[in-house]
User: Fold diguanylate cyclase from Cupriavidus malaysiensis.
Amino acid sequence: MQAALAMQIVTAALGAMMLAIIWSLRRCGLPGVGHWFYANLAAALALVLFALRGRLPDGLVIGLGNPLLAWAMAQMYAGVQRFCGRAPPWRALVAGVLALAAAVALWHFHFDDFNVRVAIVSVFHAALCAACGWTLLRARLPGRAGGHYVTTAVFALFFAAAHALRGALSLQAALQGPPGASPPGMHILFLLLGALAVPALTMGAVLMVHDRLVHRLELIANTDFLTGVLSRKAFEDEATRQLARAARGDSAPALLLLDIDRFKAVNDNHGHAAGDEVLRAFTAMARDAVRPGDRIGRLGGEEFAVLLPATALEDALLVAERLRARAEAGRVDGSFGSLHYTISGGVAHWLPGESLARLTGRADAALYAAKLAGRNRMLASATPAAARPATAGSAPAQPRTPQPH
Assistant:
């Protein structure tokens, strides 16, 4: 019993530490964290009660400690459900905890059979641990490897198996021996595993929270906050990777630079809120008009870039013209009224050995030429060998000067 008491005290201390860690994450805004905090609080209180057995009445320790530990596991499962975007089945959880409390009380005060109590508690915990593991395996964060989800799920399934084995051994002892017979010989080991379940799952939960926060920071760093397309740095990083793949033998990409015509006049005449709506309307239209593998980035102000992997110049010009036509045909409505806008663009096809800066420079020169030619048009960049024909003409690469709006 001294060993069991020592393990309960150590586990309670571990639970208290996990409680402090979860408390530090309370302001992260992620769903499920609050439930995990209450799970560790309930588990710590339950383990304190178990550690005080012999100093407190058995009825209080058993009748309150087991439901508290069950409620801790229910809160842990509810947190997993919330974290994965699901609604916890509160009625079933509350009913299960109340049924467990009644069964533990019945087999303590009336029948007084330790092994039956252990079997009941173990089955409850095994079911919830298995449910946690299954939920996590089915609902990993989209677009990421999900390693921390799998790690936490493995923790949960391991404890589910341990609880199930403990329940089976206890039920066997209850059936073979008289009521109140001694617990199985591995009781202390199983007691330790059961007490460690909530802290271990909490450690996995902290890893998942960290992964979600890192993902959020990556989105903030890589996404333009107003339009939702790639930020300039993220776009340039993606374009650099695409050019490196092309240099290794993949099909050459094309780059399209786009600029909203007379955007300054929109802000001056209708306000910056109207300008923001035009930017959002344009990017929503552009995302719908390009392929899933194409990348759109905001380079600054009203200037955007579209990277078209494995795209010939002629096909890139078709994409550019489709964007221009949709912009010309669309309107932006809001409290400022109804606005009409057009775009101009320059297209450049990557040449072997060309850097991103040189490719961008050629597309930029074509964009500037489109502005000078009257706006609302798409022009192709000239290559060092010869100018490529375009639907509305082409322009040779030239140094960029301040462009008209």
